[in-house]
Write a structure and sequence with these properties.
The complex is a heterodimer of chains A (187) and B (232). Chain A is mainly beta. In chain A, 10% of the residues lie in helices and 31% in strands. Chain A has one domain: Protocatechuate 3,4-Dioxygenase, subunit A. In chain A, the strands form 2 sheets. In chain A, strands 1, 2, 3, 4, 7, 8, 9, 10 and 11 form a 9-stranded mixed β-sheet that branches. A two-stranded antiparallel ribbon of chain A has the order 5-6. Chain B is mainly β and 232 residues long. Helices cover 2% and strands 24% of the residues of chain B. In chain B, strand 6 and strand 7 form a beta hairpin. Classes of the chains: A mainly beta (187), B mainly beta (232). Chains A and B meet through helix 1, strand 5, strand 7, strand 8 and strand 12 of A and strand 1, helix 1, strand 3, strand 4 and strand 9 of B.
Chain lengths: 187, 232
C-alpha cells in the first residue's frame, strides 16, 4: 500500500452545534446505572472568560480496562459507550456521566492510572487540543502513572486532576491559556 | 533507514491572522502522549446514529432547498491508503445564501431557507466510501478583518478507528477566489492546503440532476505498531 498524506485539521467554527450536537452525547452510560459518576467543569480562555461555543469529547476504558474491538456490535442505548460528547454552555460548563475506568497496562511493565482522553474543539482552535482527565483521589496510581510522571512538575500534573466534590462527582476546569493553562498533548 | 517524520500537516494553534486564536491558543509546549491502549482504540459508532435521510441534506424537509444541488463523495483512508470502513462522518454547512441555520448566525442580510438545515451524517462503506447530497454552500462575511469573507466550505468530522485519528476539518471547492484572503485555510502549511480542496468530478455528476465533487480524507497512522498489553 502506498503512503497517503494526512488531511489537515480546521476549526469547528462557531456553528459546531449544528453538526455535532447529540442529545445523548454526555451520557457515556445511563445516569441511573450503578457506579455512574458525573465529571464536569468549565472551559475557559486565557482571560478566564468562559468558552461558550466549545465541545468536549472523552474516550476511556471501561471499569474492567476493556475497549471495544473492531467487529463488536455498537453499544445498545444506555449501555456503556466509552465515548462522551458535551457542548459547552454559555458559562463554559460541560459535564458527562460515565463509569470510572480501570488502570491500564503500559509498555515497560508500567501501569497507567485511571484516565480519560479528552479532545477539545472550539472556534479559535484551528486543531483539536488533546488532554487527559485523571482522578485526584487515585493518589498511589497517579504517582506511578508514566504520563503524569513525564510532566515537569506538580503544578502541571494538577491541571489534569479532577477533584471529588459532593455527590460522588468530579470537577475539573480546562484552561486553554494563561497561568493555569492545562497540559495539552501532541499525538 | 527510517524516513524522517514528515512535517505536521496541521495548522499551528497560535495564528494571529485568525483573531479568535488570541485568547484560546495554548502557549505552553505540548507534551508528547505515547500511543498506548486509550490512544490506539476508538469508538464504534454504528448505523444506530444515522437516519435514513441524514446523508441527503436536500430531503430533510417538505420542500427542496434553493441552490445548486451537488453530490459530495470520496473515501476515508488511513496513512497507508487503506479504507476506513464503517466510520461515522458528520457534516454541517451554510445554505446557498451563506447563512447557517444556527441561532448564532444572526445576519439579516442573508436569508434562511426553511427547507435546509445544513447538517448530515453517514457511515463509510466497506471501501471507506461516503456520499452526501446537498446544495453548494454560499460564501459568507465574518468580522475577522475588514471585508473578510469565508470561502464556501463544508465542515467534516471523522472518527476513524482510534482516538489518535480523530479529525475535524473543512472541505473547500476548487478555484475559489477567496482562498488567498482566508486566514483559516491559510493557517495550513502551504504544501498541505490542496488536500482540503475537493475536485470537480464529472464522472460522478448525475445528468440533469446534480454536479459532483470528490474529496478523500486521509487520517493519520496505519503503519505504527500499536502497543499490545502483556499476556496475562
Amino acid at each position: 500500500m502506498s503512503a497517503a498524506l494526512p488531511t489537515p485539521a480546521q476549526t469547528v467554527g462557531p456553528f459546531l452545534s449544528l453538526g455535532l450536537a447529540w442529545p445523548d452525547g454526555p451520557c457515556v452510560v445511563d445516569p441511573d446505572a450503578p457506579g455512574a459518576v458525573r465529571i464536569g467543569g468549565r472551559l475557559l480562555d486565557g482571560r478566564r472568560d468562559p468558552v461558550g461555543d466549545g465541545l468536549i469529547e472523552t474516550w476511556q476504558a471501561d471499569p474492567d480496562g476493556r475497549f471495544p474491538q473492531p467487529g463488536d456490535p455498537p453499544p445498545k442505548p444506555g449501555a456503556f459507550r466509552h465515548f462522551g460528547r458535551c457542548l459547552t454552555g454559555p458559562d463554559g460548563a460541560w459535564e458527562i456521566v460515565t463509569l470510572k475506568p480501570a488502570p491500564l497496562p503500559a509498555p515497560g511493565r508500567a501501569t497507567e492510572a485511571p484516565h480519560l482522553d479528552v479532545s477539545v474543539f472550539a472556534r479559535g482552535l484551528l486543531h483539536r487540543v488533546v488532554t487527559r482527565i485523571y482522578f485526584a483521589d487515585e493518589e498511589a496510581a497517579n504517582a506511578a502513572d508514566p504520563v503524569l510522571r513525564s510532566l515537569p512538575d506538580d503544578a502541571a500534573r494538577a491541571t489534569l486532576l479532577a477533584t471529588p466534590v459532593a455527590g460522588g462527582a468530579y470537577r475539573l476546569d480546562i484552561h486553554l491559556q494563561g497561568p493555569d493553562e492545562t497540559v495539552f498533548f501532541v499525538l | 533507514m527510517t524516513p524522517a517524520e514528515p512535517p505536521s500537516p496541521h495548522p499551528p494553534y497560535d495564528w494571529p491572522d485568525y483573531g479568535s486564536t488570541r485568547w484560546r491558543a495554548p502557549h505552553r509546549p505540548l507534551v508528547v502522549l505515547p500511543e498506548n491502549l486509550t490512544e490506539v482504540s476508538g469508538p464504534l459508532l454504528g448505523a444506530e446514529r444515522v437516519g435514513e435521510r441524514d446523508h441527503d441534506l436536500t430531503r430533510q424537509h417538505t420542500g427542496e432547498p434553493l441552490g445548486q444541488r451537488i453530490i459530495v463523495h470520496g473515501r476515508v483512508l488511513d496513512g497507508d491508503s487503506r479504507p476506513v470502513s464503517d466510520t461515522l462522518v458528520e457534516v454541517w454547512q451554510a445554505n446557498a445564501a451563506g447563512r447557517y441555520h444556527h441561532p448564532g448566525d444572526e445576519r439579516p442580510t442573508a436569508p434562511l431557507d426553511p427547507n435546509f438545515s445544513g447538517a448530515g451524517r453517514t457511515l463509510t462503506d466497506a471501501d471507506g466510501r461516503y456520499r452526501f447530497v446537498t446544495v453548494k454552500p454560499g460564501a459568507y462575511p465574518w468580522k475577522n478583518h475588514h471585508n473578510a469573507w469565508r470561502p464556501a466550505h463544508i465542515h467534516f468530522s471523522v472518527f476513524g478507528r482510534a482516538f489518535s485519528q480523530r479529525l475535524v476539518t473543512q472541505m473547500y471547492f476548487p478555484d475559489d477566489p477567496l482562498f488567498p484572503n482566508d486566514p483559516i485555510l491559510g493557517s495550513v502549511p502551504e504544501p498541505a492546503r490542496p488536500r482540503l480542496i475537493a475536485r470537480f468530478d464529472l464522472e460522478a455528476t448525475e445528468p440533469e440532476w446534480a454536479l459532483a465533487f470528490r474529496w478523500d480524507i486521509v487520517l493519520r497512522g496505519g503503519r505504527a505498531m500499536p502497543f499490545e498489553p502483556p499476556a496475562p
